[in-house]
Amino acid sequence: MTKILIIEDNDNIRENVVEILELSGYEVFAAANGKTGVETALKMLPDLILCDIMMPELDGYGVLHILHKHPETQATPIIFLTAKAERADIRKGMELGVDDYLTKPFDDVELLKAIEARLKKKEQQQLFYGQSAENLNTVISKEDGLVKLKEIMLDRSTRHFKKNQYIHYEGDHVLGIYYIISGKVKTVKLTQEGRELITGVYKENDYLDISILFSNDTYNDTTIALEETVLSFLPTEQLDKLLFLYPDVGAKFIKILANDMREKEERLLQIAYMSVRKRIAQGIIHLLQQHSSDGTSIKFSRDDLAAFSGTSPETISRTLSDFKEEGLIEKTSSTIHILNLEKLSRIKN
Predict the structure, then answer these.
(1) What is the pLDDT of residue 28?
(2) Between these two residues, 177 and 212, which has the higher pLDDT value?
(3) φ/ψ bin of 30: left (φ > 0), alpha (ψ from -120 to 50), beta (otherwise)
(4) Which residue has the higher pLDDT, 41 or 146?
(5) How far apart are CA 154 and CA 183, in angstroms?
(6) If you write DSSP's letter for every residue of 290-309 in order, what string do you get?
(7) How many CB atoms lie within 10 A of CB 272?
(8) Average confidence (pLDDT) over 286-296
(9) Beta partners for 224?
(10) What is the dihedral of CA 178, 181, 185, 187, to 10 degrees?
(11) Dist. CA 28–CA 46, nearest whole Å
């Protein structure tokens, strides 16, 4: 049920508004002055606030100023109730961030239309940005912004991708970053001949495309679901807002990105200087360390393992057959079971 708080020192007006709103199906809280209103707002976290301007102890401008300082109420729509609607007063309220004005006396229809309009606008913002766009403000002053970001991403609307479905292409205009709720995703570079080179494999709890922190024009890789995958999406506008509110998230993203770049550099060196057997063995070990559910096996297709190791599918087949004969692995369908990890890691040629 939608919650509305009415802050009004006039008993008759306050009681009348409460009655109208309750009859209209809203859950209503009431406060007789600004100080009590702020306390109630922070405790009950209403979806919308109706607030008189001229009140004892704390006026409407003071209420607005305080609530906008708190992350929990910073995005809550506030409608001022005022007996005077002079241009200077309206300008002052708008500069402070009030959402609308209702001039006393107002009738039932005016009240309900103003409320419905503000709630509809809030709903549209949530649909565009995700179910908890305003909750980005709650990461301020928290100890671990990345943990809060994960909570936000889990609370947002999700996108489902089937196996081998493309999420975005290299060169597409950047829209935002993805968080993997479940499943597995690969990022690839495509050669002119259409051959794939896998630049990364990502699993549950990983973030995709955080390189847009430095370049927000186009995506650097083509991203494809390796299996049934569920992603949460954060638009660039909300990412920018998050980084502004909590720079620590940006620092942690940079650390993740640095590790990712270092890993890619090591793999490029392997492809450039290691023998085929060695880089296939190292590729298997890397995938085992990063993506094995049981610590002893990985599930990757021959083509994906070839793209990851920088070789051909035929070479993968021959090499895996050799590894099997040497007692290093067992292979069933697309699953590789590691039998002798130590010996596999010592392969040189």
Answers:
(1) 95
(2) 177
(3) beta
(4) 41
(5) 14
(6) HH-SSSSEEE--HHHHHHHH
(7) 9
(8) 81
(9) 166, 186
(10) 20
(11) 9
Instruction: Inform me whether the pLDDT recorded for 68 exceeds 90.
Output: no
Edge-first strand listing for the sheet containing 158-161: 158-161, 229-235, 176-182, 207-208
310 closest CA partner among 259, 264, 267: 267
CB-based contacts of 124: which residues, under 8 Å, 6+ apart? none
Instruction: For residue 100, give the amino acid letter.
Output: D
Q: Other C-beta atoms within 10 Å of 159: how many?
A: 13
pLDDT tens per residue, range 210-268: 776 666 578 888 899 999 999 988 887 777 777 776 677 777 777 777 777 777 777 77
Amino acid making up residue 135: N
Burial letters for 258-269: b for 16+ Cβ neighbours within 10 Å, e otherwise? Answer: eebeeeeeebee
- Across the beta sheet with 78-82, what order do the strands follow? 27-31, 3-7, 48-52, 78-82, 100-103
Pair 256, 214: CB distance under 8 Å? no
∠ at Cα 128 (123, 133), nearest 5°? 75
Q: Which amino acid is at 87?
A: R
Two structure tokens written together for 70: 């708190």
- Residue found by looking up tokens 């010592």 in the block: 346
Whose tokens are 């057997």? That residue is: 277
